[in-house]
Amino acid sequence: MKRGPRPKPTVLKKLHGTFNVTRDRDRLEPLAPGELAAPPAHLTEAQKARWAQVLRDAPKNVLRRIDREALVAYIVAGDLVERANTAQQALDAGKPLPFLAKSDKGLPTLSPYVKLMLRAVPMMLRAAAECGFTPTARAGMKIYDGALDDDLAEIARWQLVAHLSRHHSNGNAEEEKRWRQEADRLERLMNAKPASARPQ
Predict the structure, then answer these.
(1) Do both 82 and 181 map to the same domain?
(2) Which residue, of 63, 83, 94, 138, has the greatest Cβ tally within 10 A?
(3) pLDDT per residue over 104-148, tens digit each?
């Protein structure tokens, strides 16, 4: 059995800014096809609404179609926690000792709804971590937030100009030097890391 930490997916390495072309070139995992969209038919209406909300709020370009069951685990576990909590609140209404129920022998015992939450919460958190839904899972992630839009537009313009200049410099050394400087600047911009995610 392989020891040590589990390999980090390439998409997360790129989001974290730790992807190294030389070191990670031979460790690229296959890109799973398809994005997640419609929820599975077996989910309840409330779970389907939760599915849609999660996909709106989830980190972009991380979840793929093959990750459906991991997301289902998160959705179902979260739904169980919510429903059990609602039922427990109704059970506790007017009682001096919350979270307790009577056993078959009439002794106080932990409510079955609390037991359900104690089982469902760890499952929900594990699924959330796998899908990148927790602050710890997202720590250090970097996203494209539009900060480079102007630079990318300028890159496109200068690429066209540089292409034309290679064929029309007429051997002018100063002009060739100028285009070389622009090409170097373009290369630096293209290799720049995405801007850090900003607080909402």
Answers:
(1) no
(2) 63
(3) 888 889 999 999 999 999 999 999 988 888 887 776 555 544 444
Q: Ramachandran region of residue 60, left (φ > 0), alpha (ψ -120 to 50) or beta?
A: beta
- Take residue 113 and report the two structure tokens written for it: 């709804």
Tokens at 163, concatenated? 């292409």
In sequence order, what are the residues at sequence separation of 6 or more whose Cβ sits closer than 8 angstroms to the Cβ of residue 37? Answer: 55
137 contacts 128 by C-beta, under 8 angstroms? yes
Q: Interhelix angle for 68-92 vs 45-57, to 10°? A: 120
198 located within any domain: no
Task: Please tell me whether the overall predicted TM-score, pTM, comes out greater than 0.85 for this model.
Answer: no
Tally DSSP H helices, then E strands, for the chain: 8, 2
Q: Could you give the number of structural domains in the chain?
A: 2
